[in-house]
Amino acid sequence: MRLLWYLAGLYRVPWRALTVLLTVAYARWIRAVWGGEDAALLLTRARKHDIKPLMRSLGAQVATDADIETHMIFHNVPQGLGRLRIGQACHIGKNVFFDLSAPITLGDRVTVSMRVQFITHIDVGRSRLGTTAFPPRHSAISVDDDAYIGVAATLLMGVHIGRAAVVAAGAVVTEDVPDLAVVGGVPARVLRMLPESTLGTSHRTDKGRTDHDDADTSIQAGSR
């Protein structure tokens, strides 16, 4: 049994590399024939080791050490993922929704928890509201280094999340978030400010917690 397991492991190494090449080639063909929207659908069911090569093949800028989970959803990507940039050492959880009507930029060491939504546009369709109160528009979203976005948070168009800011689970962010701010609620508001020393003095314990893990329950619920 151990021999079979060992041989299976040896088999997976070249096979995985081959499947990545084949998947990327298939994605490029789909994009050329049917467009970026159809090609991006491959990312909703891709295996984890295929995700970063697939994203790059569709135009995204993704750091080599980014950790990206499965079942991402991309919207408004007729030309591919060229409006998305993911920095070094970022973590993207499962079922994250990216609306790429406008650029989305994630700095380095950003954590985006599962089911987070990035919404970069508003369009009320054929409603007459679109000619008066809510005309179609779009605007970029940016998240600075070391920020943390909790589970199922929503970031609306045009917002900027500051350095080392924390967005609590379930929050709806409609305005810019300052550096080191902890925000939560609907719409999100500043709950408190973290000290400037947060990034320089915290250290991890055996359980992966830091000296500053005294945030309220809603923030702790934003686990990646």
Word description of this protein:
The strands form 4 sheets. The protein has a 7-stranded mixed sheet with strand order 2-5-8-13-16-18-19. It has a 5-stranded parallel sheet with strand order 1-4-7-12-15, covered by helices on one side. The chain contains 5 helices and 19 strands. Helix 1 packs parallel to helix 3. Helices cover 25% and strands 21% of the residues. The protein has helices at 2-34, 36-40, 48-57, 198-201, 217-220, and strands at residues 61-62, 67-68, 73-75, 84-86, 91-92, 97-99, 104-106, 111-112, 117-118, 121-122, 137-138, 141-143, 148-149, 154-155, 160-161, 166-167, 172-173, 181-184, 189-193. The chain is α/β, with parallel strands linked by helices and 224 residues long. Mean pLDDT is 83; it is low at 202-215. It is flat and about 50 Å long. The protein has a domain at 101-220: UDP N-Acetylglucosamine Acyltransferase, domain 1 (3 Solenoid), CATH 2.160.10.
Q: What is the CATH fold-level name of the domain at 101-220?
A: UDP N-Acetylglucosamine Acyltransferase, domain 1
* Strands ordered across the widest β-sheet: 2-5-8-13-16-18-19
Tell me how many strands there are.
19
Tertiary shape: flat
What is the SS-derived class? alpha/beta
CATH superfamily of the domain at 101-220: Hexapeptide repeat proteins
Write the layout of secondary structure elements.
Elements: H1 2-34, H2 36-40, H3 48-57, E1 61-62, E2 67-68, E3 73-75, E4 84-86, E5 91-92, E6 97-99, E7 104-106, E8 111-112, E9 117-118, E10 121-122, E11 137-138, E12 141-143, E13 148-149, E14 154-155, E15 160-161, E16 166-167, E17 172-173, E18 181-184, E19 189-193, H4 198-201, H5 217-220
Parallel strand pairs: 1-4, 2-5, 3-6, 4-7, 5-8, 6-9, 7-12, 8-13, 9-14, 12-15, 13-16, 14-17, 16-18
Antiparallel strand pairs: 10-11, 18-19
Helix pairs in contact: 1-3
